[in-house]
Amino acid sequence: MTAMTVPGIDDAPVQNARLLSWVREVAELTTPDNVVWCDGSDAEWDRMTSRLVEAGTFVKLNEEKKPNSFYAASDPDDVARVEERTFICSVDEAGAGPTNNWMDPAEMKSIMTELYRGCMRGRTMYVIPFCMGPLDAEQPFLGVEITDSEYVVCSMKIMTRMGAPVLPLLDGPAGDRFVPALHSVGAPLEPGQQDVAWPCSDTKYITHFPETREIWSYGSGYGGNALLGKKCYALRIASAMAHDEGWLAEHMLILKLISPADEAYYVAAAFPSACGKTNLAMLQPTIPGWRAETVGDDIAWMRFGEDGRLYAVNPEFGFFGVAPGTNWKTNPNAMRTIEQGNSLFTNVALTDDGDVWWEGLEGDPQHLTSWTGQDWTPDSDFPAAHPNSRYTTPISQCPVVAPEWEDPQGVPISAILFGGRRKTTVPLVTEARDWQHGTFMGATMSSEKTAAAKGGLGQVRRDPMAMLPFLGYNVGDYFQHWVNVGKGADADKLPKIFYVNWFRRGEDGRFLWPGFGENSRVLKWCIERMEGTASATETAIGYVPTAEQMDLTELDTPIADVEAALAVDVEEWKAEIPLIEEWFEVVGDRLPTAMRDELEGLKLRLGL
Ligand code: GTP
Ligand code: MN
Ligand code: MN
């Protein structure tokens, strides 16, 4: 076959042969009008954003209120991750496990190859070199995303380290390990055909090939489906790498807490999507003398350091945060971060003076343009912003970012929190007896479904370690991996594990615990447990504080509510057991014996 000459290929800015042949192959398959290598410069950002404004995809926001920032409204059907269209195409079906959709890799590739054929017609194909984690890491984690979406290019500039600085790494020792990540919105343009503001396709596939470390995504422009460095690489593919190499890739925030004695503690926390990671990551403590700084808000890569402690790195460069509910009271630091501009806002509402608004934000707008483009007033019977609307903003702008957030060694983790959104049963905080018990807590954690994924809002489901939608391999093997990580480590140096629930409700549906900044009281208790200075009460499910055992100074929540938030209701837990058993049935024969033992222990302690 004669190689066709595509501009942007013959003059590519790298030598990496594997990369060049892949770029050429994709260009030949998808037949874009041209090929552009992204350099990540501000000039490129200006070019791209102007183009998107012209195309009607972006609205430039009021420069005074949100400098260099843009608003985008997606297709009303392309607003969240599509879990039912997400596949782990491992060689063996068992490799994907019972919690993932699976298809034979060859079969999937042949289906998707037909979808990709000619799919970039009339569009530009962008090649985005990127790096997850610091560029100066001993072993940088490289990727290259090919996309036909300028929205993706702009978003990737905020969310990852990308462009020119990555090129020398692609030609360096780590170059061959780059993860190829192919994305198309799946909306080719015929000559003269007018583009729509948000091109996408009704046919969507978000596909991962864990053995060959490849990502193929088709049909969606939404963040989690299209910014392939994030969920697809840094969680699904990285979890498979981590399993093979003995480390952990987790859906966790990383928070630095500084005590009144100026002691720093790093905490990682796994909560399902839209359950409070970004909020906790930017916590403004309410207890006097305590300070908090942010290292990461969504993903943690953790490996053991030479000193035997577990170190965490945030592989991302930006925050992709849930907008609704974010305000000066719930997350002042997120507000300060986006106020500085250089941000994108997707599916929020637009104010008449060119700013953004969403449910829960301060202000009392009398008229808005909703995310669906409709006139909105306070009397409207539909929300102004989509519940999963998001802001995309640089971490470096966060006023409380920890100075060490880009340290390639990471930060030593003292505590791991697991948490879900449960109206009942799960107390505000429970300390695990040891690593294996903590692994059991993570393996059995549950949450009510949120708007971050399509369908089933409010339904309780098991979401192990908040990784259910993000695990790149068999969930039973994943639990065994967690058990093994603990076994191989020095028990004294392992992080302590806690299970938290900010979302328990009273009979009238009110939250029993005020949450947000007040969560610092829970963190303080966790740290004092590690220091041996706080007491706890041993219960069937683990160590739980009474209200007296926590620092509630000047908390204006009724003490009875705090007590109800902390209560261990044995009857509720007895009712939870069949649900856990049902879940373990789903996990199947790869469920570690250690997890069965933990369940038996819990049943005994509950008197079952
Ligand atoms: P992803 O970014 O999708 O992974 O989710 P996330 O875990 O970062 O979720 P985020 O922090 O954006 O949480 C969003 C939702 O959780 C909003 O509805 C918040 O109001 C709510 N939330 C966060 N923290 C608390 C809390 O302490 N108490 C209560 N009641 N709600 C909270
Ligand atoms: Mn997330
Ligand atoms: Mn978040």
From TrEMBL:
Positions contributing to substrate binding: 81, 222-224, 273, 388-390
KW Transmembrane helix (keyword) present: no
CDD domains for the chain: PEPCK_GTP (cd00819)
Residues in Phosphoenolpyruvate carboxykinase GTP-utilising N-terminal domain copies: 22-243
Cofactor(s) listed in the protein's UniProt record: Mn(2+)
UniProt: Mn(2+) binding residues: 231, 251, 298
Comment on bound cofactor: Binds 1 Mn(2+) ion per subunit.
MF-aspect GO terms: phosphoenolpyruvate carboxykinase (GTP) activity
Active site per database record: 275
UniProt-listed InterPro entries: PEP_carboxykin_GTP_CS, PEP_carboxykinase_C, PEP_carboxykinase_GTP, PEP_carboxykinase_GTP_C, PEP_carboxykinase_GTP_N, PEP_carboxykinase_N
Subcellular location: Cytoplasm
Record-annotated Phosphoenolpyruvate carboxykinase C-terminal P-loop domain positions: 247-603
Pathway: Carbohydrate biosynthesis; gluconeogenesis
Catalytic activity: oxaloacetate + GTP = phosphoenolpyruvate + GDP + CO2
Pfam families xref list: PEPCK_GTP (PF00821), PEPCK_N (PF17297)
Chain sites annotated for binding GTP: 274-279, 390, 421, 516-519
EC number of the protein: 4.1.1.32
UniProtKB keywords: Cytoplasm, Decarboxylase, Gluconeogenesis, GTP-binding, Lyase, Manganese, Metal-binding, Nucleotide-binding
Subunit structure: Monomer.
Purpose of the protein: Catalyzes the conversion of oxaloacetate (OAA) to phosphoenolpyruvate (PEP), the rate-limiting step in the metabolic pathway that produces glucose from lactate and other precursors derived from the citric acid cycle.
Family: Belongs to the phosphoenolpyruvate carboxykinase [GTP] family.
UniProt-recorded name of the protein: Phosphoenolpyruvate carboxykinase [GTP]
UniProt organism field: Pseudonocardia humida
Gene from which the chain derives: pckG
